Amino acid sequence: MTGAVPQETTVPVLGRGVRLRQNRADGSWVLLAPEKMFELDQVSAEILRRVDGERSLGVIVDDLAAAFDAPREEILRDVSAFLQDFAAKRVVDL
Predict the structure, then answer these.
(1) Is 1 helix (H, G, I), strand (E, B) or coil?
(2) Buried b vs exposed e over 46-57: b needs ≥16 C-beta within 10 Å?
(3) pTM for the full predicted model
(4) Cβ contacts of 64 within 8 Å, gap of 6 or more
(5) N or C: which end of the chain has fewer CB within 10 A?
(6) What are 28-42's pLDDT values in tens digits?
């Protein structure tokens, strides 16, 4: 569903052939996709570490809001936009 606005019940999953990997030397995270690589900042990595094909957007948002003691509505807005962007890049399926 590229371009679709994810609902809280949407279960995001990494796209086919996409892998999240941590650099053992410095602890940084990268998202590896066929012929693509994305270096992730801390926020992006925290979101994508929770994208496991089992947790819904609502569960991911609840977890992030609790982990960072941040307003749920703000987290929901930001994570939804992030996932839409990565779905448009064809590395996350919504």
Answers:
(1) coil
(2) bbbebbeeebeb
(3) 0.91
(4) 46, 47, 50, 70, 75, 79
(5) N
(6) 999 999 999 999 999
